[in-house]
Design a protein that fits this description.
The protein is mainly α. The protein has a domain of 142 residues. Helix content is 39%, strand content 9%. The protein has 7 helices and 4 strands. The protein has a two-stranded antiparallel sheet. It has a two-stranded antiparallel sheet with strand order 3-4. A hairpin with a 5-residue loop joins strand 3 and strand 4. About 6% of the residues have low confidence.
Length: 307
Amino acid sequence: MTERKETLPALTPQQRIAAQRAPTEAESAAIEAAKERNAKRPKRLEVRTEREGNTARVSPLHNDHVGWEAMTRDATGSSSGTFGETVITRLETVIRDRGAATATDQQLNAALAAMGAVAPENEIEALIGEQIVATHALSMEMMAKAKHTDTMPKMEAFASMATKLSRTMLASVEALSKIRNGGKQQVEVRYVYVDARGSQNVIGGGPWGASGGGKGNQRLPQGPRAAIAFDPGAPVATLLGEDESGDTLPVSSDARAAQVLPARREVAGSAEGREAPRLETRRPQRRSSPGSAVSARSGAPRSERPR
């Protein structure tokens, strides 16, 4: 005897939502904060993808085609509508799945949202933005293949390719940053004053260009200047490292009082105060040369030396 199983009818999306719980107080606060932040963000370009033969065409989601074309030029950083359409077509070709005729609307709109984050101001920046989006999409695909492969050589090959693509994407981001700031590096400098009582005050600060001078140092925003009050009667804490000598300089080795050694020293077997015996040294006599008239031994001339 077989057991009969009853299949329940599938729930509609409205029924699934009604079956879920209500958000908590913390979740409701986070939702309101997210709504406020999203309201301040710009609206990104969205399109609908259609296939006509071997060509993929994009169209707006609304009936304002003129406004849609303006948003397309703004998203690609060019006043040329042809350039904007070409950029979108190349992005659609890169991000589509393997074997698919066209990219889905979700894939293409996500790529256009990334281009909106790049916010290119000219065609060069738009081309760099294309490379950023394309290398990121291909890098994520290689990572997915490395995760789901069964052999170690394939995993290493996919992971190596994903690493190279990620580095290429980061190089494109750095190139875009250098183009926009002119190759200058912003350095933020802050001056901190610490008084004897241990309070810390920021005197001033602001970004300066690493190259120095020029327009980068003019009219820069300064940090808050804290007023330092002086009270003569207030006690001052002892600073670390302060000694009894105060601010006196250390005495040099030459200026120190040298120990004077006694002129007389005691000798074993001698009375106290007796002068120690001195060792007499004889200077060796120098031998005269063979032709000298005076002999070194006798001190007389050779002619008078007894034979």
